[in-house]
Amino acid sequence: MIESLLPRDVCCAEAFGDLPGAVLLDEEERDFVHAGPGRRRQSTTVRHLARQALARLGHAPAPVPRGPGGAPHWPDGVVGSMTHCAGYRAAVVADGRRLAAVGIDAEPHAALREGTLATISLPRERRLLAERHEGDPSIHWDRLLFSAKEAVYKCWYPLSLTPLDFGDVDVVFRAEGGHFDASVHPGGPAPGASAAPRTFTGRWAVAHGLIITAVSAPPVTGRRA
């Protein structure tokens, strides 16, 4: 699923459940000492998938511990992203000379809890979502918006090391379907964000009871991979 949403330069691995042979490497263990059994299994599987994706990129197996802000810390010269939700885990990686960053997210294709949409969206986004719902009521547009913002954040943060609130990301779903545009407007100081893009283009898909979103950023001029 995820491969169809990303450029050819991105290597992907995905699974629709936990893999019994997956293990955490020593450098990763410390991140999950206090994790519950379910979260530990998901995190173990998604790191196993990350190593599969790294192998497809031509890299040896490597640990993927948590870095600043909880984002994955990839081997030198590699950019990537991971996601997991009920029934799905995925990891994607790319050569840092070809992409500056990538972000993916997976969510169950179900409505958000009542009241959640108002906390994660802008008034204009809610108006546009209502229009999209009229055009295709089979899509849970509120959950799709949540997922798109998560993917944008995962692409933005490694480049800027600047946290975002949901209201700092403005998402517009294109009329043709399967694509969205996003702009980032940090609500506070963003001293590390000068080289990070403020606009992103992403793709999305709904299948197998899941929403999948993906965003990538081209190389930043003057930035070392």
Protein model, in words:
With 225 residues, the chain is of the alpha+beta class. The chain is 28% helix and 25% strand. It contains five helices and eight strands. It has helices at 26-29, 37-57, 116-120, 123-135, 141-160; strands at residues 11-15, 78-85, 88-95, 101-108, 169-173, 179-184, 199-207, 210-217. Strand 2 and strand 3 form a beta hairpin.
Could you give a quick summary of the protein structure above?
With 225 residues, this protein is of the alpha+beta class.
Looking at this protein, list some descriptive labels.
225 residues; globular; alpha+beta; 8 strands; 5-stranded antiparallel β-sheet
- How many beta-strand runs? 8
The helix content is: 25-40%
Any low-confidence stretches, pLDDT <50, length ≥5? Answer: none
- Rg over alpha carbons: 17 Å
Shape: globular
Strand content: 25-35%
Along the chain, the helix and strand elements come as: EHHEEEHHHEEEE
Total number of helical segments? 5
- For the largest beta sheet, what order do the strands appear in spatially? 4-8-7-6-5
Helix-strand category = alpha+beta
| Oligomerization state | single chain
For the biggest sheet, the summary is: 5 strands, antiparallel
Q: Determine the N-to-C terminus distance.
A: 27 Å
